From TrEMBL:
Organism: Modicella reniformis
GO cellular component terms attached to this protein's record: mitochondrial matrix
Catalytic activity: tRNA(Phe) + L-phenylalanine + ATP = L-phenylalanyl-tRNA(Phe) + AMP + diphosphate + H(+)
Protein name, UniProt field: Phenylalanine--tRNA ligase, mitochondrial
NCBIfam families hit by this protein: pheS_mito (TIGR00469)
Keyword set includes rRNA-binding: no
GO biological process: phenylalanyl-tRNA aminoacylation
Subcellular location: Mitochondrion matrix
């Protein structure tokens, strides 16, 4: 499954899945009931129309704007208690926006929260931020993190835009600059959003945890070497680690960094993360971990950690030495530090033995009532329901992108779709038109689906695909 790591611009970065949801609540912008009795001051900015909440009053009634149902009108989108103008860049859908209210990582018995808590327990003195709105600026998500203007992660086919300058964060690193201005040891847990294809292990919303630690550049070497040497727990000793990474021009030290300080920071990063996985996989007697070189716009050098699990290498996290520009912008030019970002779903799927990523979003008690806080236990399957396959064939066009097609499927059919795959493609010899056929596997996780019900969905899908994608059905 997609770990959701932002790689170098040349590398493809991975995908996710979909589902059925109640009809979105469409409300007029500015509706008084939306804001209740709260005082709300609305201000028009260049690209966003923001409703400012008065913090005191929010506290009084204990309201959480992130729990407010999002609303979409033809002119604006309200999410997390704020309203934004839509424009030609808008591609976010109600199906996706509604996910912002779920906050799975805040439900103590949810596997995502259980993994989060276990990871956080390895970093007890870190300041943990868990209530950032998923709505961020393109500056926060990309520019502040040194993303090139043409980085593929910015593409409309990969990212959900509310408008040209406002988007749903695609990674927790979007908050790195802000949190590093406030503290030297930080964790951020949040839901992140990426447009993607549909298959059994990918979902357009997933959860990440970000961690970072800074050291005074002058004393980093001494402080770090002493800490590692005096760690009596020695967790990392019981891990088989392969580390063949080398600092080369392809994965370089930053010019501004002192070699010894950078190497100490890198060692502290790997030591801390080895300890973290050791804790998470405490039941695995022979945990095997490998470090490989990676590239991220906001760290250098950069690495990924993989774990050998049931004979396969599982990519767990991306990390590296933070780009000094970010620390300078955070007002910390005299510090050096590391950062990591990991996908919680991937770890939860493996540790709980959960067969389908859609289950994390299930409201079924048979799922939700299985787990206890702070405890990893194997998922007990409820029966697997039969699939129902439907094909759709159409002449595609120049603007066609599979992620856009999958977005329509998500919006029309929701979580009842287990996967979507292309089963045929050909170009007409004379007209040069390209025909594609997709097979959609409809399978609910918690009930039998009827052919009649699926036919209705498929008919709606056919209409919507034509309307939104301007393709011609065959
Ligand atoms: N934000 C990166 C991703 O989503 C992960 C990462 C975080 C890498 C911090 C390096 C440092 O892929």
């Amino acid at each position: 499954m997609a770990s959701g790591m932002f790689r170098a611009a040349t590398q493809q970065w991975s995908s996710r899945t979909l589902r059925a949801r109640p009809a979105p609540r469409i409300m007029n912008y500015g509706s008084a009931s939306l804001f209740g009795d709260l005082q709300c001051i609305t201000k028009l900015l260049a690209n966003e129309l923001i409703a400012f909440w008065e913090p005191d009053q929010l506290g009084q009634i204990g309201s959480n704007p992130l729990k407010e149902p999002p609303t979409i009108t033809k002119d604006s989108i309200t999410v997390g208690g704020k309203t934004y103008k839509v424009d030609q860049a808008t591609n976010v859908t109600t199906t996706i926006l509604e996910k912002t209210t779920r906050q799975l990582f805040q439900i103590p018995t949810h596997p995502i929260a259980i993994i989060k808590d276990l990871i956080a327990s390895t970093f007890p003195d870190f300041k943990h931020y868990q209530s950032f709105s998923p709505v961020v600026t393109t500056k926060q998500n990309f520019d502040d993190l040194c993303f090139a203007k043409d980085h593929p992660g910015r593409a409309a086919t990969d990212t959900y835009y509310i408008n040209e300058k406002i988007m749903l964060r695609t990674h927790t690193s979007a908050h790195q600059l802000q949190v590093l201005t406030e503290a030297d040891k930080v964790l951020v847990t949040a839901d992140v959003y990426r447009r993607d294809e549909i298959d059994a292990s990918h979902y357009p919303v997933f959860h990440q945890m970000e961690g970072a630690e800074l050291f005074d550049t002058k004393t980093a070497v001494d402080v770090i070497r002493k800490q590692i040497a005096t760690d009596t727990a020695q967790h990392s000793k019981s891990i088989h680690t392969t580390d063949i990474t080398v600092i080369t021009d392809k994965n370089p030290k930053q010019d501004c960094h002192d070699q010894a300080a950078m190497l100490a920071t890198a060692d502290h990063l790997k030591y801390s993360l080895n300890k973290m996985v050791r804790n998470l996989f405490s039941h695995e007697k022979n945990l095997t971990v490998r470090w490989i070189d990676a590239q991220f716009p906001f760290t250098s050098p950069s690495w990924e950690m993989e774990i050998l699990y049931k004979g396969k290498w599982l990519e767990v996290l991306g990390c590296g030495v933070i780009k000094q520009d970010i620390l300078n912008n955070a007002g910390k030019p005299d510090k050096i530090g590391w950062a990591f970002g990991l996908g919680l779903e991937r770890l939860a799927l493996v540790l709980f033995g959960i067969p389908d990523i859609r289950l994390f979003w299930s409201q079924d008690e048979r799922f939700l009532h299985q787990f206890e806080p702070s405890k990893i236990q194997k998922f007990k399957a409820f029966s697997k329901y039969p699939p129902c396959f439907k094909d759709i064939t159409f002449w595609s066009n120049e603007d066609f992108h599979e992620n856009n097609f999958c977005e329509v499927v998500r919006d029309v059919a929701g979580d009842i779709v287990e996967d979507v795959r292309m089963i045929d493609e050909f170009t007409h010899p004379k007209t040069k038109k390209c025909s594609v056929c997709y097979r959609i596997n409809y399978r609910s996780m918690d009930r039998n689906v009827t052919n009649v019900e699926i036919n209705e969905i498929q008919d709606r899908l056919r209409e919507e695909v034509v309307r939104r994608m301007k393709v011609e059905l065959r």
